[in-house]
Design a protein that fits this description.
Elements: E1 3-7, H1 18-21, H2 33-36, H3 44-57, H4 62-69, H5 78-87, E2 92-101, H6 102-111, E3 120-124, E4 126-128, E5 134-136, H7 153-166, E6 173-178, H8 184-189, E7 195-198, H9 203-213, E8 221-222, H10 228-240
Parallel strand pairs: 1-2, 1-6, 2-3, 6-7, 7-8
Antiparallel strand pairs: 4-5
Helix pairs in contact: 5-10
Length: 241
């Protein structure tokens, strides 16, 4: 009996957007209007590439970025929740599927000593170039019309589950914890026995409600959370059953 926990990262594990938090490193802690207005829907990764280039051009180095990123606050109750999952790893497999990047997530999890909690992290690959600039790439290519072009979380989840099945691992239940519009696609892939946990007041909750109003509700159960304590209460029930 094993459960799979799937976490988004921004506004779920951490209480901010890691990509916008890095702007604190920019001159006067803001981006020029031209750069800020250059974002095109569905092309966030390319936009962040330009942001990182701007930071590099302004002499912002890796150590300064790291110092800034590890000050990002965790969501209320999240530290306790991750500690609880870490103590019960024989029951929970735990992955992150995020539109952030490998460098930011790695820094933040390692600084808080949570990297052991997660079995895998699926996010946009990032690295520092020989000139010290942070670069980021799309996670993968996909054909899903609903998702941003760099990442379809449903595809990631499906491929992960297929790979686990090949290893002889199947899950009693999947619990998907997220907040954003790009979390809807994987939630719609969940089955009747699974649980979606959208964050209260955020886009994912609103989109799931809208589907129910349109009489095409998601198949899985839906449990809304406002603090990670709510998630922990549910997981404690789950392992008692």
């Amino acid at each position: 009996m094993k459960f799979l926990l799937v976490f988004d990262f921004d506004h779920t594990i951490v209480d901010e957007n890691s990509d916008t938090w890095i702007v604190k490193c920019a001159p006067e802690r803001k981006l020029p209007n031209g750069l800020r207005n250059s974002y095109q829907p569905g092309h966030w990764t390319e936009y962040m590439g330009r942001v990182f280039a701007y930071l590099g051009d302004n002499g912002v180095k890796e150590d300064e970025m790291k110092r800034t990123m590890i000050t990002i606050p965790f969501t209320a109750g999240m530290v306790d929740l991750l500690g609880f999952i870490g103590k019960n790893k024989e029951l929970f497999d735990c992955i992150i599927v995020s539109d952030s990047n490998t460098v930011f997530i790695d820094w933040i999890l390692k600084a808080a000593d949570f990297h052991e909690v997660f079995d895998e992290v699926f996010t946009n690959p990032a690295a520092f170039s020989s000139t010290g600039y942070l670069t980021v790439q799309n996670f993968h290519a996909h054909r899903c019309a609903k998702c941003p072009k760099n990442l379809c979380k449903r595809k990631v989840l499906k491929e992960f589950l297929d790979k686990q099945l090949e290893r002889g691992v199947s899950y009693t239940q999947i619990v998907y914890i997220g907040d954003g519009g790009n979390d809807l696609c994987p939630v719609m892939f969940l089955k009747k026995n699974d649980v979606a946990m959208p964050r209260q007041g955020y886009t994912l909750e609103k989109k799931i409600s809208q589907l129910a109003e349109d009489l095409s509700p998601v198949q899985c159960s839906v449990l809304v959370w406002s603090s990670a304590t709510d998630i922990m209460s549910y997981l404690k029930l789950l392992i008692k059953e």
